[in-house]
């Protein structure tokens, strides 16, 4: 196995173009597990750790530009206000050691349906900036996941930056696991309120072949909140609306039975998490959240 150690982004892109089968390694918390278990024996490893720009982030007017290798710990420490859903999701990843190494670029690279960043990215609204020697392109997060552990990257492309909408309202993330740390999600749910556009976005993890949004549930809730004047009044969401939202979120799942849980349990748990995260975010909105710009 050859180890390629580019010193710059341009060198990394050139190396990937020359060796499209080279496996990029950032934190290595997925790659090294696969190599150690002999699930993967790549001819080339492409080490991205000398590339500073992948570890940088920038808070802009509307978006956060998150370098692919920014570790979860830094998201939790520095971007909690701008990316509350992703910060909460980061908090649930593994252990401090893994959170110090692993990042969102690696989570996207692996594209496991159980990856914790995905529901938060889907709910917040994100675009993945990928680049090759041919140029760069932006992939909307909804189009990024193409199958079980498959993503929209071409063989010569690398993930450079994830552009994530800054929170304009409360966000929550909920994860079911067999314990509180070092656990892969049995299933997970992310919810973001967007008072500026009076919309709600969701993300479901580990309950379908890919991370997905509960689009019907979103559409139902958007209409119910608008028709009932909830955004203006901030009144409590009626139990029947919350119940219907939960049922539709549950219906968006297409899970399997596996060692972590049954399909039936996953559907049920996603419904519960949808109802709870809606309750939590709406309570926040009724309090501090409603003073945000755009919320009447
Ligand atoms: C003990 C343990 C517990 C874990 N628990 C969790 C958990 O609770 N939740 C969770 O979501 N994950 C968990 N993971 C998985 C892992 O930590 C995450 O998926 C993490 O985000 C991977 O990031 P990384 O930088 O280490 O990726 P790496 O292992 O370096 O790479 C992962 C994949 O992404 C590709 N890649 C990396 N960077 C790029 C790039 N810039 N462009 C293109 N491709 C790239 C690699 O080639 C590889 O295919 C756990 C892992 C371990 C070992």
TrEMBL record:
This protein's UniProt keywords: FAD, Flavoprotein, Oxidoreductase
Gene3D superfamilies, A to Z: 3.30.465.10, CO dehydrogenase flavoprotein, C-terminal domain (3.30.390.50), Uridine Diphospho-n-acetylenolpyruvylglucosamine Reductase, domain 2 (3.30.43.10)
Pfam families hit by this protein: CO_deh_flav_C, FAD_binding_5
Ranges of residues in domain FAD-binding PCMH-type: 1-169
Descriptive protein name: Xanthine dehydrogenase family protein subunit M
Species in which this protein is naturally found: Streptomyces lavendulocolor
PROSITE patterns attached to this UniProt entry: FAD_PCMH (PS51387)
Entry-linked InterPro entries: CO_DH_flav_C, CO_DH_flav_C_dom_sf, Diverse_Substr_Oxidored, FAD-bd_PCMH, FAD-bd_PCMH-like_sf, FAD-bd_PCMH_sub1, FAD-bd_PCMH_sub2, Mopterin_DH_FAD-bd
Family matches, as SMART domains: CO_deh_flav_C
Source organism superkingdom: Bacteria
């Amino acid at each position: 196995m050859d180890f390629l150690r580019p010193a710059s982004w341009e060198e990394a892109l050139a190396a990937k173009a020359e060796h499209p089968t080279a496996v990029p390694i950032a934190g290595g918390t997925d790659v090294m597990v696969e190599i150690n278990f002999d699930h993967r024996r790549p001819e080339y490893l492409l080490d991205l750790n000398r590339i500073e720009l992948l570890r940088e982030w920038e808070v802009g007017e509307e978006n956060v530009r998150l370098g692919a290798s920014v570790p979860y710990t830094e998201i939790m420490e520095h971007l909690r206000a701008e990316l509350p859903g992703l910060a909460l999701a980061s908090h649930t990843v593994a252990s401090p050691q893994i959170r110090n190494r692993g990042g969102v670029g690696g989570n996207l690279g692996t594209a496991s349906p159980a990856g914790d960043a995905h529901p938060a990215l889907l709910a917040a609204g994100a675009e993945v900036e990928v680049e090759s020697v041919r140029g760069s392109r932006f992939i909307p997060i909804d189009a990024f996941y193409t199958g079980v552990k498959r993503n929209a990257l071409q063989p010569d492309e690398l993930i450079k930056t994830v552009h994530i909408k800054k929170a304009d309202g409360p966000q929550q993330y909920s994860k079911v696991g067999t314990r509180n740390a070092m656990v892969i999600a049995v299933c997970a749910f992310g919810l973001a309120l967007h008072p500026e556009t009076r919309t709600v976005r969701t993300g479901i993890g580990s309950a379908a072949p890919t991370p997905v949004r509960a689009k019907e549930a979103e559409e139902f809730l958007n209409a119910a909140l608008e028709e009932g004047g909830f955004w203006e009044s901030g009144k409590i969401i009626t139990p029947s609306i919350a119940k219907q939202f939960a049922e539709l979120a549950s219906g968006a799942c297409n899970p399997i039975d596996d060692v972590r849980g049954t399909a039936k349990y996953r559907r049920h748990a996603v419904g519960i998490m949808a109802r709870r995260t809606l309750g939590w975010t709406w309570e926040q909105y009724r309090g501090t959240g409603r003073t945000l710009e755009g919320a009447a």
